[in-house]
C-alpha cells in the first residue's frame, strides 16, 4: 500500500486516528441509482457483469468520479463466491438472489466446497486493475455475512421472516453449525483473495442478522463471525462489520472482532458508541430515505449524524443501509460535499 493510501481520511478514521475531514462513502453507491450504470449494464446480467473485469472497474469507478467519495466499494455481490463454487443460483432483476435447489439437508451442505483463488480469477483481475485506476482512493472489498448467506441458501431467495433458516438454526443446530462453518471458510477465502489483490479494507455485510435475538446471535452466529475477523487479522486491513436492524446486537457484534461497526439509521451514533464499547470506530448512519426529501431536510439530519459521530473514536459517514434506487444522484453529490465541508478541521 502506498503512503498516500495508508494516510487517506477513510483508513485513518477506521484506525481511529485524527482526520482532516470525516470520510464518506455510500453502501450500494455503485449501480442502481446511476443512469451511467444502467447504460453500461444494458444487455448484461448481474452475475455476468461481476465476472467481466472491464465492467467491474467502470461501475466501481462511476460513483467515485461523480461524488468524490473517500472510498470505492468493489462492484460484485454477496452471492458471487457461492456461484463460483457451483451453487445453482442467479440474480433475478427486481427480486435478488434466487437459488435453484435450496440447501436444507446434510447433502446440500456437503456440496458447499471451499473457495479457491482459481474459482474467481476475474475478482483478482478486477481488484488489481481497480487499485491502479483508483490510485489514492482506498478500495473496500466485501463479502456477505454467514447468517445472511445461509438465509439465501436455505430459503432459496429473499425472505421476510427467515422461517426455514431459523427452523434449521433452532431445530437442527448441528446441521446449522456445519453450514455456518462452510460459509465461514468460503467468506474468509473470498475476503483474503480481495485483500491479496490490493483491497485496503473489507466489509462484512451480515445484512439480515438483525432478525436474531442477542442470546441467539451469541450461540449461533458469533462463533463464526469471530473466526472470519480473526482469520483476517494478519492482513492488517480495517475490518468493517455491518447489519440492518442490529440495535440490540451492537454490543455482541462489537465482540466479534471488527475494527469498525456499521450502524443502521435506527440508533443514533452517540448511543451506538456506548453500545459497541471502546476501541472501535463507527460507520453510518443517515436514513437512506431522507435523501428522497428536499435538501433543506437532508442538511440538518446530516449535520446531526456528524455531531453524534464525534462521540465515537472514529467515524466514517455513510447511510444506514444502501442507496435506494430512486435516489437523485445530485443529492448524494451534495451530501458528499456537505460532509467534507462541515467536518473540515
Ligand atoms: O441487476 C442489478 O442491477 C441487480 C441489483 C444488484 C446490484 C447493483 C444486486 C442484486 N446486487 C448488486 C451489487 C451489490 N450487492 C454490491 C456492489 C456495490 C454497490 O452496489 O455499490 C454490494 C455491496 C452488494 C451486496 C449485497 N447483495 C447485499 C448486502 C448489502 C445490502 O444491501 O444489505 C445483499 C443483501 C445482497 C443481495 C442482493 N443482491 C441483489 C439484490 C437486489 C439483493 C437484495 C435482495 C434482498 O432483498 O434479499
What this model shows, in words?
With 345 residues, the protein is an alpha/beta fold. The protein has one domain: Alpha-Beta Barrel (TIM Barrel), CATH 3.20.20.210. The chain contains 16 helices and 9 strands. It has helices spanning 3-6, 9-14, 35-41, 46-50, 53-67, 80-84, 106-110, 121-134, 146-155, 163-171, 173-196, 214-230, 250-254, 269-276, 295-309, 329-342; strands at residues 72-73, 89-92, 96-99, 139-144, 201-205, 239-242, 260-262, 281-286, 315-319. The protein has a 7-stranded parallel β-sheet. It has a two-stranded antiparallel ribbon with strand order 2-3. A hairpin with a 3-residue loop joins strand 2 (89-92) and strand 3 (96-99). Helix 15 (295-309) packs across helix 16. The longest helix is centred in the middle third of the chain and has 24 residues, at 173-196. The relative contact order is 0.14. The model has no long low-confidence stretch (mean pLDDT 97). It binds coproporphyrinogen I (1CP). It is an enzyme of class 4 (lyase). Pathway: Porphyrin-containing compound metabolism; protoporphyrin-IX biosynthesis; coproporphyrinogen-III from 5-aminolevulinate: step 4/4.
Amino acid at each position: 500500500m502506498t503512503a498516500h493510501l495508508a494516510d487517506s481520511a477513510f483508513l485513518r478514521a477506521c484506525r481511529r486516528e485524527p482526520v482532516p475531514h470525516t470520510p464518506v462513502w455510500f453502501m450500494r453507491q455503485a449501480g442502481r441509482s446511476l443512469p451511467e450504470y444502467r447504460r453500461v449494464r444494458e444487455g448484461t446480467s448481474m452475475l455476468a457483469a461481476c465476472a467481466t473485469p472491464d465492467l467491474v472497474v467502470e461501475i466501481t469507478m462511476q460513483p467515485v468520479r461523480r461524488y468524490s467519495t473517500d472510498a470505492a466499494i468493489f462492484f460484485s455481490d454477496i452471492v458471487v463466491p457461492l456461484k463460483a463454487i457451483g451453487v445453482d443460483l442467479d440474480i433475478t432483476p427486481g427480486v435478488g438472489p434466487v437459488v435453484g435447489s435450496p440447501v436444507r439437508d446434510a447433502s446440500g451442505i456437503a456440496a458447499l466446497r471451499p473457495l479457491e483463488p482459481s474459482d474467481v480469477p476475474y475478482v483478482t483481475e478486477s481488484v488489481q486493475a481497480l487499485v491502479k485506476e483508483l490510485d489514492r482512493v482506498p478500495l473496500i472489498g466485501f463479502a456477505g455475512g454467514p447468517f445472511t448467506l445461509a438465509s439465501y441458501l436455505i430459503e432459496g431467495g429473499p425472505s421476510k421472516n427467515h422461517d426455514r433458516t431459523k427452523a434449521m438454526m433452532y431445530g437442527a443446530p448441528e446441521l446449522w453449525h456445519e453450514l455456518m462453518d462452510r460459509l465461514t471458510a468460503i467468506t474468509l477465502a473470498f475476503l483474503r483473495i480481495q485483500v491479496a489483490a490490493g483491497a485496503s479494507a473489507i466489509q462484512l455485510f451480515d445484512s439480515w442478522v438483525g432478525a436474531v435475538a442477542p442470546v441467539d446471535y451469541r450461540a449461533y452466529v458469533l462463533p463464526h463471525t469471530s473466526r472470519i475477523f480473526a482469520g483476517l487479522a494478519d492482513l492488517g486491513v480495517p475490518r468493517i462489520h455491518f447489519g440492518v436492524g442490529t440495535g440490540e446486537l451492537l454490543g455482541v457484534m462489537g465482540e466479534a472482532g471488527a475494527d469498525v461497526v456499521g450502524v443502521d439509521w435506527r440508533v443514533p451514533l452517540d448511543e451506538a458508541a456506548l453500545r459497541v464499547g471502546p476501541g472501535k470506530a463507527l460507520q453510518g448512519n443517515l436514513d437512506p430515505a431522507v435523501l428522497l426529501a428536499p435538501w433543506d431536510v437532508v442538511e440538518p439530519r446530516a449535520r446531526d449524524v456528524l455531531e453524534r459521530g464525534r462521540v465515537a473514536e472514529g467515524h466514517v459517514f455513510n447511510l444506514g443501509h444502501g442507496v435506494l434506487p430512486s435516489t437523485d444522484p445530485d443529492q448524494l453529490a451534495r451530501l458528499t460535499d456537505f460532509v467534507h465541508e462541515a467536518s473540515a478541521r
